[in-house]
From TrEMBL:
Record domain Type I restriction modification DNA specificity: where: 23-177, 208-367
SUPFAM superfamilies in UniProt: DNA methylase specificity domain
Any single GO BP term: DNA restriction-modification system
Organism: Vibrio quintilis
Protein name per its UniProtKB record: Type-1 restriction enzyme EcoKI specificity protein
InterPro entries assigned to the protein according to its UniProt record, in alphabetical order: Restrct_endonuc_typeI_TRD, Restrct_endonuc_typeI_TRD_sf, Type-I_RS_S_subunit
Lineage: Bacteria, Pseudomonadati, Pseudomonadota, Gammaproteobacteria, Vibrionales
Length: 392
């Protein structure tokens, strides 16, 4: 059984941040509530301040300092990140610095513990809730939050193991970002005709001008129907048909109102103008428009990519609730190559999408595995062995 101690027993001190306004091009970058990223402090979009030397020294962050978000919405209060960057950073007033006593606790272990799901729930239970925000008093935090006190070498080993997972997650996130940028550039080139692909039938690059056509010449749209009464959140043998709202699947039904490949366009609300292709039987709700008929001169996949590139959300009404109607969509002009070139372009972009989807699935798997591992390691359900060289 791993003994538990109060967080305060593991700290040298806790400190509120600076109550000063940020300025452009200040001397020192200053972390605020929005600079937390997956348990670390991120310099993206960081503000800056000017400070006297003595004040800077008082608030200067050191590697291993933990920052804790003491005031925010109930969903965000308690967010925690560890500082690992080089440079002269300080921190703002809604953050609290926790300086760990490194003789008995490892800062990275404490940070992982405070980012564990069960700890997050505990932090929310400690918070004092108001109408629009919540607050966690540092004194109460140090007293009420109990931390499992593993031997220091074991804490360090646990932190090292979990850091390995963090590196794998970060690497996969970078690969996804790179793949998405590459796909975006590829769409820009292929969907405008700036880059022409090889015709597999001739072995030569596709040639010829693209025809400019209005969308109203390519398809006719209809609005979806009221959501079925039997919609369930989980797909089953009886409720096997996806029900689509303006953007994504909102449940499953035993009924369908579309039995062929259709292009969906978000009609109203936040996802107004969002476009997606659905290939199988489904139910389209009245939050979306969909292609009731489409010309056989166009490839559905190609046209979906064209519509995404164009971004139909630009056509929504300017006032009140976002809404898009059929008429302005019909008036949009797009370039259209011959069908075989459309199909080739669509196949290249579909392959890029599948690569991104595989990476996203890998990322989700890594995060789930790390979460399960944290739950085992941080509670002592699974103990790690520390050899003498690691403990030294």
């Amino acid at each position: 059984m791993v003994p538990k101690v109060s967080l305060g027993d593991l700290l040298l001190e806790s400190q509120y941040g600076l109550s000063v306004s940020s300025i452009d091009n200040g001397q020192y970058p200053m972390f605020k509530m929005n600079n937390f990223s997956n348990g670390f402090m991120s310099a993206d979009g960081v503000d800056s301040v000017d400070l006297e030397k003595s004040e800077f020294e008082k608030y200067q962050l050191k590697c291993g300092d933990i920052l804790f978000n003491r005031t925010n919405s109930i969903d965000l209060v308690g967010k925690t990140g560890i500082f690992t960057l080089s440079g002269n950073y300080v921190f703002a007033s809604y953050l609290v610095r926790l300086k760990v006593n490194k003789e008995i606790a490892d800062p990275f272990f404490i940070n992982f513990f405070m980012n564990d799901d069960s700890t997050k729930k505990r932090l929310k239970s400690i918070a004092t809730k108001a109408v629009s925000q919540a607050n966690i008093n540092p004194t109460q935090l140090k007293k009420l939050l109990k931390v499992p006190l593993f031997p220091l070498p074991e804490q360090q080993k646990i932190a090292k193991i979990l850091s390995t997972w963090d590196k794998a997650i970060a690497t996969t996130e970078r690969l996804i970002a790179t793949s998405q940028q590459q796909k975006k550039a590829l769409m820009q080139q292929l969907l405008t005709g700036k880059k022409r692909l090889v015709n597999p039938d001739t072995g030569m690059v596709f040639e010829g001008d693209w025809e400019e056509v209005k969308l109203g010449e390519l398809f006719k749209l209809g609005s979806g129907d009221k959501k079925p009464d039997d919609v369930e959140s989980v797909q089953s043998q009886n409720n096997k048909y996806p029900v689509y709202g303006g953007n994504n699947i909102m449940g499953y039904s035993s009924e369908y109102n579309s039995d062929c490949s259709v292009i969906l366009i978000g009609r109203v609300g936040e996802y107004c103008g969002v476009t997606r292709l659905v290939r199988d039987k489904c139910w389209v709700t009245d939050n979306a428009l969909y292609t009731k008929s489409i010309s056989n001169s166009v490839c559905n996949e190609f046209l979906t990519y064209q519509l995404k590139q164009y971004d139909l959300s630009r056509l929504r009404n300017k006032g009140g609730q976002p809404l898009i109607s059929q008429k302005p969509i019909y008036g949009v002009n797009l370039g259209l190559p011959i069908l075989s070139e459309q199909q080739k372009i669509a196949s290249v972009l579909t392959a890029a999408d599948k690569e991104i989807e595989l990476l996203q699935a890998k990322l989700a798997h890594l995060k789930e595995e790390k979460k399960a591992l944290m739950q085992q390691l941080l509670t002592g359900k699974r103990r790690v062995k520390v050899d003498t060289t690691e403990a030294a």
